[in-house]
Amino acid sequence: MHSHAARPPRLRSFTSLLAITGLALLGAVAITTAAPAAPANAAEPLPICPPDGGMPPIDNLPSYTDANVAVYAGGDYLAAGSAAESEGLLLVRGNATFDKIEGGIFNVGAVGVGSGITPAGGDTMLAVGGELDVVAPTRVDVGHNVDGGGAVHVGGTGSPAGGGAGQVETNGAEYLTGLGQPTAMAPYADFQDVIVEASSALAATPSNGTTQVSGIRATFTGGGSGMQVFTIDAAALAPITEVFFEGIPENAPILVNVTGGPLAFAPSYFSLNGERVDAFSSPNFGNAASQIMWNIADATTVTIGGASQVMGSILAPAADATVTASTNGRLHVGGDLTTSGQGNEQHNYPWIGGGPFDCGSASFDAVKVITGSGASAVPDDAVFTLQYTYELDGETVSGELLLPADGTAVDGPSDLPVGTVVSFTEIDLPDVDGIEWGEPQIDEPEITIGDDVVTRITVTNTANAIINSVGGFSASKQVEGDAAGQVPTDTVFTLAYSYELDGATVEGELSLPADGTVVDGPQDLPAGTVVSFEEVELPAIDGVEWGAPELSASTVTIADGTTVEVTVTNTAVPVTPTPTPTPTPTPEPDDSGNDLAETGFSGLVPMTAAALALLVGAALFFVARRRRA
């Protein structure tokens, strides 16, 4: 569903080629074809890279594939105003924001009308090292009109996927966020260094042509064969609106080194060997665009203004740039890049001067195959990491390809020298629930790059389904004691349980009826799980007092394929009722209205005492007489 675009050739190869050719035509692409342009067709892949001198004109159909960087922002990228499209791979080291003044669609990768030179269907067409923000009502459409769409890689957060306002549409390709900057930009994480070094090398190239400025016209007249090199100061170029190239050999690359800065450049007319080539009707529109390179090595601020078609690649490694015109070529800016014109577009034409600016095609690609009993459980969007390593100019170069589980082919680096030995290792297998991975099998763990050959690497992983050892627990209630008969059978008791699962505490409750019915707890707990129990909130029942609950086990360990049963016993003790005191009767009143109890009692007390004294005295008298007698 996606692919990393190819890694650009290292500058050492670029500068060595300069020295060897002595300013001749810089390296042809590794894989080229003279086949005619063809419309997108799912059954017939597009040809890779157009030949020098055979660049397609402006059209509305994809015609060739190119895996190299078309537009690059070393800082942040902003599509504002009424900017419309960015063709080819758009690579942003910082944050990318799409915020058109009136909303609408901004196309990336493939455009409505352009060169038709795009990344292959499903390959990465938008890579952002930082965050991706699509501001509604703007919509971003990646890979439109390309079979397989265009993948999007984001280092940080990204706006939602989909075709609506504030969303990213990938047309069936992959959309990955949260990758981190190096992975999101891979294999172009060092592209800033690449363009800085390449610009410096180009700026040091001696001129072999002449430059003449007259009013608003600059005329660059070639000299000799091979690459045509010119130099002009930014201040002298600023007022120029008409650009003439004269005496240029057929299909020769053109390099214009612009010194100093800042630069504000708004050309509106381009002529090559007597023919105006900036009109879409020109049969040499594509060829002229692919020949010219503007190397703005010194300027820290660059404005490409106007509303016309600017011909040629623009390289400004130290600059923040604002572009309102449409550009035709590579557009590589080391700082922030803002495209903010009226329907302006970036059309992708590789520079035929070579280095990191030419057309890129894979020297190898790789696919993922999943086998084993658990293959069906592996999601199609699972991503596997294939690491590759090779030696280039005495240094070890490493990179990674992210292989989707659905078997989509992913391109490796482009333009590796013939004879380069590349080694492969799979790392960091993805975590998939219920799956245990076997040892990866790489059909060709080491390959040697051949001439005009794309070698396919097949990486097979065996997904073994994990048969989980699980068990469960259940519980029941038992009521005992002299008052057990007073407990209704539908009385419910609450048994709380807890256990650790995946580092988190899980808690729950079972409702146990007094009739002893067995109640199941979870039955899919991993074997070895320790479950703890506690009875809580005993029910209140008249005439019953509860003793302390007794659990057959306060903790249990789950065993494979079994259910552990816990019995909770409660003793019901009868409660002896407390006697109710008999109340004292209230006396009734007499006829006089006084309470009988009060009048009788108050007179009775002294009378009773007197009578008692008389009785005691009489008794003593009687006893005494008996003794005398």
From TrEMBL:
The UniProt keywords, alphabetically, are:
Cell wall, Membrane, Peptidoglycan-anchor, Secreted, Signal, Transmembrane, Transmembrane helix
Protein name per the record: Choice-of-anchor A family protein
Bias regions of kind Pro residues — which residues?
A: 576-587
Q: Which organism is it from?
A: Agromyces lapidis
Ranges for the region named Disordered are: 573-599
Which region is the signal sequence?
1-42
Q: Where is the Gram-positive cocci surface proteins LPxTG domain?
A: 596-629
List membrane-spanning regions.
604-624
Q: Does the keyword Signal apply?
A: yes
The record's listing under InterPro entries reads: Choice_anch_A, DUF5979, LPXTG_anchor
